[in-house]
Amino acid sequence: MDTITVVVPCYNEEDVLKNFYAEITKVASEMQKVKFEIIFIDDGSKDKTLDIIKDYLKLDSRVKYISFSRNFGKEAAIYAGLKAAIGKYVVIIDADLQHPPRLIKDMYYGITQEGYDSVAAYRINRKGENKIRSFFSKIFFKLASKITRLDFRQGEEDYRMMNRKFLEAVLSIKEKNRFAKGIFQWVGFNVKWIGHENVNRVAGESKWSLFKLFTYSIDGIIGFSGIPLIIVSVIGGVLCLIGIVLGILLVIKSLISDANISTSLILIVVSILMGGVQLFIFGILGQYLGKSYLETKQRPLYIVKEEKILDNKEIEIDGEVKVQI
Ligand code: UDP
Ligand code: MG
Predict the structure, then answer these.
(1) Residues 214 and 135: beta-carbon distance below 8 Å
(2) 293 & 317 share domain
(3) Which of 31, 102, 159, 215 could make an S-S bridge to 121, C-beta 3.0–4.6 Å?
């Protein structure tokens, strides 16, 4: 019998946990051929979240929990849950029911029957969402896809199921500044996308302020790309060019006309040139820093999807093929 581990990051979710538990157990009871393990990760909640989880634990042997000593953020909670999961398949889901639990059935079907390694959910619209937030999210997904060259999908969420192979790959990435959506894209494999309507929180409030989302987005992009540093160098290079061209024009002007060139004009040209040179050098220094930053993450060089390595390796010695057993 297959086991699905459900990983649920929770931060101050006392208002929604009852609804969530009712929904997830309903889905579990509809999937009779599958066993469930439900791991709640209490991310340092200050309300009754942990007490409620402990109540469920007493009643239901499928329930487990990990409770953090303080709020470490959703990324840390996801990682802890993924690491602890024992299921053959693992699904990450929010506690606020914005991720419809019924999709777990479709995800399970996608992996077990259609052969996908992971099935991910995305919102097909943003009905009911704060307009400013929608606007910035849309820009983020466009920008992030361009800059990181990863294929982010508009409306992508952290709601996805994965098989063990996919999970091991995700866990093999040990970096501390984690951006799950980037990691899921980075590991590759065959992924199926399922769209669903936007759902508002059943209760409680979003734990993400616009500012927190903004810094998280920047983290996401910087963690997967050195292109922002190249942009700095390019701006520096362009400023240098402008400075040089203006400088040459000034020299030509002083040679062909008798009129004095104003010192402030010369100062402006020199400062454009110097600013450009400095920015260019910063960009180059940044490149070295960026490369060593990426190295410190010690990501694997590649991730294998399948392999067949012959037991009898053929080695060539002096043009003769010998078989090594
Ligand atoms: N969450 C968490 N730690 C945090 C913030 C959020 O574990 O520091 C959990 C939260 O309890 C919820 C999920 O992450 O289950 C998504 O959070 P939220 O609904 O606030 O984000 P939004 O849906 O507004 O993006
Ligand atoms: Mg939410």
Answers:
(1) no
(2) no
(3) 159
Q: How far is the CA of 102 from the centre of ligand 2 (A)?
A: 17
Q: Are residues 160 and 308 in the same domain?
A: yes
Same domain, 217 and 232: no
When divided into structural domains, the chain yields a total of 2
Q: How far is the CA of 206 from the centre of ligand 1 (A)?
A: 6
- The answer to whether residues 155 and 217 belong to one domain is yes
Does the C-beta of 158 come closer than 6 Å to ligand 1?
A: no
- The pTM of the full predicted model, rounded to 2 decimals, is 0.83
CATH number of the domain residue 191 falls in: 3.90.550.10
Residue nearest to atom 18 of ligand 1 (CA): 206
Q: Is the CB of 157 under 6 A from ligand 1?
A: no
The verdict on the CB of residue 11 being under 6 Å from ligand 1 is: yes
**Distance, CA 133 to ligand 2 centroid (Å)?**
13
Closest to 181 in 3D by CA, of 139, 148, 212: 148
Structure tokens at 132: 């400013």
Q: Look at residues 102, 134, 129, 121 and name the one whose alpha carbon lies nearest to residue 195.
A: 121
243 phi, psi to nearest 5 deg = -60, -45
Closest ligand 1 atom, residue 10 Cα: 11
pLDDT values of the chain reduced to their tens digit, one per residue, 325 residues = 999 999 999 999 999 999 999 999 999 999 999 999 999 999 999 999 999 999 999 999 999 999 999 999 999 999 999 999 999 999 999 999 999 999 999 999 999 999 999 999 999 988 878 888 888 888 888 888 888 888 888 889 999 999 999 999 999 999 888 899 999 999 999 999 999 998 888 888 888 888 888 888 888 888 888 888 888 899 999 999 999 999 999 889 888 887 787 888 889 989 999 999 999 998 899 889 888 888 888 889 888 888 887 666 655 566 665 655 5
Tell me the residue range of the domain where 274 lies.
Answer: 227-297
Quote the tokens at residue 122.
């995305």
